[in-house]
Amino acid sequence: MPKMKTNRAAAKRFKVSGSGKVVRYSAGKRHGMIGKRRSRKRRLLGSSVVDGADQARTLRMLGKR
Q1: Tens digit of each residue's pLDDT (9 = 90 or more) over 34-50
Q2: pTM for the complete prediction?
Q3: CB atoms within 10 A of CB 23
Q4: Which of 16, 21, 30, 41 is the most exposed, having the fewest neighbouring CB atoms within 10 Å of its CB?
């Protein structure tokens, strides 16, 4: 059986935490920041956990399952 290939686009966007959850960064921070409120920009900072409904699919794309 051949090796399972990692989806390279997903590998650049997601990381797996130590506990096995998939972590992502918020979208909407690349450009157009002048038009966004300061509080909205702060809310977009940092990482968050991928929703449970998408967790298994994301792990499969990363070659973890």
Answers
A1: 999 999 999 999 999 99
A2: 0.81
A3: 14
A4: 30
